[in-house]
Amino acid sequence: GIVSSGAAEKRVLARRLAFDLWGMPLSPKRMDTFVRDESPEAYPELVDELLASPRYGERWARHWLDVVHFGETHGYDKDQPRNHAWPYRDYVIRALNEDKPYAQFVREQIAGDRLLPHHRDGIEATGFLAAGPWDLIGHAEVPESKIDGKVARHLDRDDMVTAVMTTFCSFTVQCAQCHDHKADPVTMKDYYSLQSIFAALDRSDREYDVDPAVMQKRANLVAQISAKQSKLTKVRANIEVAKTPELKELEKLVTGSEGKRSDRYGYHSQVSAKQDTVKWVQVDLGSSLPLGKVEIFPADEYGFPNFGFPHRFRVEVSDDQEFGAKSILADQTGADFPRPGAGPIVIKGQGKRARFVRVVATKLWSRRHAGGPLSNDWIFALSEVKVTSKDKILIPKKVEALDSIQAMPRWGRANLIDGITGTGVTKIDPKVRGRYDRLLQQHAGSLLKKEKQIADEVKALERKVSALPKLKRVYVAKVHHGNGNFMGRGHVNGKPREIRILSRGDVTSPLDVVGPAPVPGIVEGVNSFDLPANHLEGDRRVALANWVVHPENKLTWRSIVNRVWQQHFGVGLVETANDFGQIGEEPTHPKLLDWLAVEFRDGGGSLKRLHRMILLSETYRQKSSGRPENASVDGSNRFLWRQNRRRLEAEVVRDTVLSVAGKMNLKMGGPSFQDFIIEKPQHSPHYQYHKADPDDPATHRRSVYRFLVRSQPQPFMDALDCADPSLLVDKRSETTTSLQALAMLNNRFILRMAEHVAVDLKGKDDPVGELIARSLGRPVRLEERGLLEDYANSHGMAALVRLVFNMSEFSYVD
Q1: Cα(535)–Cα(200) distance, rounded to whole angstroms?
Q2: Element holding 480 (H helix, E strand)
Q3: How far apart are CA 344 and CA 305, in angstroms?
């Protein structure tokens, strides 16, 4: 007894289509052109036009970012910003616009760094695994050996497991952390086997090249440098072998180190092409201690004193590893510092307490002073940093640096705190020095020549690396190799942590060890991963990715077509888009769901093709108006006898306001705009939205490019039910509150945009008609024209614009 509601009129259909595919209205001119076009191809051509536009990728990326809980701050107590999360968002937009095959899209997000290590897509895509909240305190400030550290890392792996299984398979495996799943066939062993896949991963910024050719060139150069440094190590070992007992005794006198290395050895930065490049090196004292003095010892490279010592520098101390809050013990950045000679430079502690001591070089030293090139060869080097506390020499635990050259035994970060300096060396008798030099040339002359040749080749390669374009950064899940910008204290060198089943999910009650494996029974015949004993960390994720997109993994293919269907109809064929299990809803049209899934899978995983199939269907093109006889049988419209009327999301409302005002900036990609002023960023930042200027052109971009804060949402967007970036949001909430009406009337953004619209309409032949056409996609009706014009005459055009922005028709699509 249920019959279709019939086709919607063309204006309604075009407006619906534009908001579905673009998240923005058509221009009045384009709308009129479509309405006048009586060709049967007009609608399919409009579908293709909208799908081909870059606006499509921006619109559908927002849906995807909801599902994967993408945010640009860490969340938790210290909600610090992630300033390099945005490349993942841009990757999603780019992939959707390119219509990347869905299987490839999925595989790249789980294991792109392993599958495409020399392509930006492979690197940026793994931002998916790091998209969710991250406990800065639990990872960066608490050792993994402590209970809080173990809990933080357990939750981090759980977030990755949940994101993969919920996003791609609509399967709630996380329920099996504490007990076997109560409804679905997932045991605790199955769950912790999934955790084991991510056992070596942590989160941090990763450097990469956008251009694959540059990325490959850099990798080749680094490999050449590594190979030559290995040769250099062997040559230096042979030099030591060639030394006679007499030569070794003379060397003790010459170097003044009693058989230890000389002050030629220490920390050495990477080479920079510019002298004003800022570089730093810091030592970790292990705990916060009162500082007596800090001594900085210059290096010496084969008779060139002060080798690498910066012309300008400052010394900072802090209890914060990232130096958000810091004190300055010495500042020599205003003028060049005199060459210190053999050193050391002694700096008083000024009664400060600190855990970290950092030397920041702001004007570098040129190797041309040591026979290097005349320019584009700037470095920072030190022999030793010593710190005393109450006349006791402290032994630092660790050295970190912005960058460094690791060419042991001569250069290495660890050399900065090995306690060996060149101070106190007595003047050497020229005869002793002369005999030492003659014997060294006699027994190792050819090796010394070879050493210099290879060292020069290394320097030349380093200059080539420095000349490459600056590396970009993206916040991703990655293996921690002990250097770079890693903030946490994770495992080093890619060795996965041992994962055990936790009794009741308690990190203090570990049970049996488990290895990486998929959930059995999902893909017939694939209940384990065939991984060799010596497999790499990324191989686990590749195996998982292949399992997720396996042609027989029905959950994956059903999940994505259901998500697309939901965005076109307001509700999915399975209403619980994140849960296809027994606790979730059953599909209303199971045969249709399976048909769409098979068509999508076998059609190459083209999302644009899937959109086209749905959008050209009679079901999609129906009116949204009700039929009483149908409503009495199926009031919730689960049998799709009409289209569902839907409210526009917060981002679409904001973008439409900007579009109507003529202020929309369609610049694509790049760092997110910040519609707030950030205060106290060093600890728990305050994101002050009320201090931002709504007229700042930088904030007039599409809302998908807005910087997403987890703990302090933007009030205007929050009032309109914007998604919480800490949650895997499968469907936006739709509330109706007085705050929404007040926000659309009185928010500063609305007030300013309304004024811009009023100014733009001034002098138009039909300002009211133009306003309605821009805002609602239709001509002004005869019965409303007089009322609207009277209102504008009485209260001003800006007030009328705000009234139109508050119309139900503005915020809903039929």
Answers
A1: 12
A2: none
A3: 12
Phi/psi region, residue 387 (left: phi>0; alpha: psi -120 to 50; beta: rest), is beta
List, for residues 222-261, the tens digit of each pLDDT value.
Answer: 999 999 999 999 999 999 899 888 888 777 666 654 334 4
Residues of the chain with pLDDT under 70: 252-264, 301-304, 342, 368-376, 391, 393, 419-429, 480-494
What tokens appear for 622 in the block? 């129906």
Structural tokens at position 309: 């010592």
Tens digit of pLDDT for each residue in 694-710? Answer: 999 999 999 999 999 99
pLDDT for the residue numbered 259:
37
Phi, psi of 135 (to 5 degrees): -85, 100
What's the 3-state SS for 694-744?
A: CCCHHHCECHHHECCCCCCCCHHHHHCCCCCCCCCCCCCCCCCCHHHHHHH
- CATH code, 267-425: 2.60.120.260
Instruction: Give the position of tokens 């059609």.
Output: 603
SS3 annotation, 159-180 = HHHHHHHHHHHCCCHHHHCCCC
Burial class (CB in 10 A: 0-12, 13-18, 19+), 221: middle
Only one residue has tokens 């009030």, namely 715
User: Which pLDDT score, from 0 to 100, does residue 296 have?
Assistant: 92
Task: Map out the domains of the chain as residue ranges.
Answer: 212-253+438-467, 267-425, 646-813
C-beta separation of 81 from 672 below 8 A: no
